[in-house]
Amino acid sequence: MKKVRISAILLLIFGFAVLSFDYYSQVPGQGFISNFPFKLGLDLSGGSHLVYQADLTNTKTVDGTKDLDGAMESLRGVIESRINAFGVSEPIIQTEKSTIGGEEVRKLVVELPGVTDLQKAIDTIGKTPVLEFKIQKEGTSSDAVLEATRMEQAKLEAAAFVGEGAVTSNASDATSSLVSLLTSTSTATKSTSTAVASIDYSKLYADTGLTGQYLKSASVQFDSNTRQPLVSITFDNVGKEKFANITGANVGKVLAIFLDGQPISTPVIRDQIKDGSAVISGNFTPVEARSLARDLRYGALPVPINLIGTQSIGASLGENALNASVNAGIWGFLIISLFLLVWYRLPGLVAIVSLIMYTIFNLAIFKLIPVVLTSAGLAAFILSIGMAVDGNILIFERMREELAKGHTLEDAIREGFARAWLSIRDSNLSSIITALILYFFATSALIKGFALVFLIGVLVSMFTAITVSRTFLLALGVKRHKGIVKFLFSNGLKR
Amino acid sequence: MFVVKYRKISYALSILLVLFSIFTISKWGLNYGIDFKGGSIIEVEYQGVRPSHDDITSIVKNSGVDSEIVVRPTGEKGYIIRTADLASSTMSVVTSNLTTSNFSTSTLGATSTATGNVTSAEKNNAVNKSTTTIGTIKRMDTVGPILGEELQSKSITSIILVILAIVLFITFAFRHVSKPVSSWKYGLAAIIALAHDVLVPTGIYAFLGRNGGYEIDALFVTAILVILGFSIHDTIVVFDRTRENLKLDDHHKEAFDKTVGKSISQTFARSINTSLTTILALVALFIFGAEATKNFSLVLIIGIVLGTYSSIFLGSPLLVTFWKAQKNK
Questions:
Q1: Hey, is the C-beta of A42 within 8 angstroms of any chain B C-beta?
Q2: pTM of the predicted model, to two decimals?
Q3: Which of residues 432-491 of A touch B (CB under 8 A)?
Q4: Which architecture does CATH list for B39-143?
């Protein structure tokens, strides 16, 4: 008896400790434990959720196989850096793989808490400066190619009727000694590839395989003579080698720099460039040069992506949903407690204590894992409160049977627990199976959140039913089953 | 036990419910939400006065949406607008028009006098004869066809997997029971109860979909899976008791229907009470909870009530029916 009472007290102390963890970790400025606030999903905190499908049909084949995982990982990295530059706190960017109708589909899921301007978010992510270096085709003369490019660009401008910023000019020979590239005719087209699709640069230029993917850095410089802004780029090791090979093999030819499918600079190679650096002069305004340098620095997307789903939830809607869910939880708890107290009396009170511990433990686990709470997750938690009582009810009903058989109260409690355990295990097994299947086949964060909370709830409820309820019931230490004790341990309509 | 004795009544009731469900599902079909069939939803709320239904429809139409547009009022001041899956550029035109459009004076004037509840912004508008009302986009969702397909295939897979897991579980749990009713019949009875518990909420939902705009979405599927787990758990509790009582009664002195009746009455309180606490929690969720989980909790309430009913009034009495059929052979 003494032992049980000590365990009961220890359990209570532990419960209080966890409760204060739950509480103080919500208060900012409490040191280490402030690192464990509740994590709220977008549907509760407000924000945007974007789903992209990656187009991997053109991913390069290496050693006979396509490294799709690698391509997706680098895509994820690029998008992440772009979003970080945008200044969103705690974005989530993850890749997903699924099979739809027998075909493997790769998705990129982006969650932006607090961002409700969907269009801005889409623009930030979708802005894909595809930087390509293309060499003039075999058997063409550089002059002819340059002339044709100029003609095509003039046509484009006429057709697109771009009023602002689209000026064709002969940029002066650039200064920088490290780059001998620049005998450039360049055009900055303000709006990239709007309407006109008739231009076929593939007749003039061939791919070199050198793209913005191989950039190490990009920054803005100013031409010391003309004060024109320039974008200076440096290749990484692979890019440096490629660049050296290309420039070495094609001296005297045009190496065009394409941005988003449009040539922005068409310098002629004068010498091999071994140090892996170059300058793009494209008649930029300082602002354009800066944004291009930034976009290049964060990289072009290694894989093209299509937006296939979006969701945006206003902060007020999220807050309302959160308040409503918390409210429902409190009400649910109170109604269940009332029922337990009225129907099961003293054991019912023990069940309520057990339920309080259940809630405290669950909340701590949500913080520690951490579980991203969604409205469905909170629904699962409320549902699990209702189900967590199940273990206690099983035990009480078994206990009542043991009492009816003439066992002493303490024996009835011990026996009731022992016999109820198998039923508790079996009955929770089906819920565990459901939760696991739901978790692994969930298509949305909402359902995943539900499944995870449901699973945690079932596991914790098994623990609290057999430890907490059992310890407290035994610790009450009632021996005689008579009078008031008999009343307190009876249930329902009996006296 | 009266449950076993009057089982024909409960069979009749269940058959009626199942027939009703088959009727509603085949007549009206299931009303799928956008996460299954793809599409866009915009929820917009207006400060003070709400523009008319027709205004909203025409704004959306004039923003370049050529698909069917369904506008439903929500709450006091809001609208939910459903269209086919919109490109993000169209979506941004629609949302900006919805939040900044000028609405016809007649509608605004009429509504604001009617409500008598005019915000200061509205007063200024009235003075200036300007007709701008301020809208806020509460949420917008767009689901492309690929995501819809994915949800369909994953939903089907997970339902099949849950059913398979349940069948395996029952077969395993009742592998030692053979007399007087063989173990696969326990499985069959449980599956019949299960089908009943899933079919009826779906049928009710088809009815509500037709008459109240309720939609089958990912949460509905989740609810159905939870009901599957719950229903089997309830049924197993009674079967488990039957198994235990059969073991105690080694010489089969007691007739099988008596054993089943006894098992039902022994587990009756437990079955009802555990379901009751769950339902209490769900009712709180339905009444006080977030809009997003209201329909979800409704499906669960229906399913759990049915699951409890079927475990007591359908699953176990079926065992007796099987036993009788086998005896009369």
A1: no
A2: 0.77
A3: 433-435, 437-438, 441-444, 446-447, 450-451, 454
A4: 2-Layer Sandwich (3.30)
